[in-house]
Amino acid sequence: MNERISCDRGAQQLMKTYDVLIVGGGHAGAQAAAALRQRKFSGSVAIVGAEPELPYERPPLSKDYLSGEKTFDRLLIRPEAFWIEREITMLLGQAVVAVDAAAHTVQLANGEMIGFGVLIWAAGGEPRRLACSGHDLDGVHGVRTRADVDRMMEELTAVHRVVVIGGGYIGLEAAAVLAKAGKAVTVLEAQERVLARVAGEVLSRFYEAEHRTHEVEVRLGVTVECIEEFAGKARGVRLSDGEILPAQMVIVGIGIVPSVEPLLAAGAEGGNGVAVDAFCRTSLADIYAIGDCAAHANAFADGTTIRVESVQNANDQAAVVARAITGDPVPYHAVPWFWSNQYDLRLQTVGLSVGHDQTILRGSVADRSFSVIYLKQGRVIALDCVNATKDYVQGKALVTAAVSPSVTDLADPAIPLKTLAPVA
Fold this sequence. Notes:
The chain has 424 residues and is an alpha/beta fold. The protein is 22% helix and 33% strand.
């Protein structure tokens, strides 16, 4: 191992230098460290994480963890012994506030400086906040970290009414859990349908109906004026038309803001995320970026520069960086996939439906087992599969190969999708 310690007399701070320093203890950062050791990288590796916990899975936070079906220890990506055995140093509960690309150092919030040979930025993002008054009141919650959900669970016994702002996956998953827990839940969505950013109308209307069946009130095309306050706590949501919805808890699920300010301030190219090339390299020497905060040209979005917020993307980009650092570079090329659990519905998505010009319904919405297939200029670009795992598994090959099968065949559940894929 090559861990160097020196004293920067100007800053009067002890400096440790790691061969690879990873900023961010989520899926991307954890997988990057594990992949380096898997590829026999023998240099020193450290993970700096703003949270005090060992790396853990985030998707279950709004599902199994919030519902109490999983304890936190079951969310850990790896047990503590894994990191110790592989000599991966954990510097937890410490946020990086500045990067000096030329000096190859980062500065922590406590003033400590840490040096690096190679930096992997995997800091993810923070929940996007409301811009209105009352956004920071007690009782207003994002769903991003264990601490976020722990605070929610501590308050729930005194909560009868919940307003969820945002009809994306996080908001709908939280709404499903809280509705099952007996809370009166209202979902507010500014657009004319839920999941408008990520899915077609068939899927949107299906999930709206499912939530209403479970006594969740879904309001579309509404905007929030402010969060009402009583004794320093949220007590309601005022809409732009003046109506006030009483609530003891407000959940905000309107996306994330990528945590990239220190890198951008250091001169990295980017904006909504930090820009990376096909090998996840930023514009700064010896600095990579991966995961939710990495803006990359994605082949499954026709080369458009996007950020992909998924476990798949985090893990696959981590593997790309580990290969690059260990001298076996391979460009990033992975089919995006996602999932969401709401009530007894298992949604599995493969590909990116943005920009589609045709949709095909396969199966029966009434039977609550179906797939929506998205085409662009005749090519299959994505599938949303509800309780239809076989379609999801077999459909991946159609997206990967960008095939143009018969629309009639695609719509026929009796024809396995694997028969429409090219023969390897």
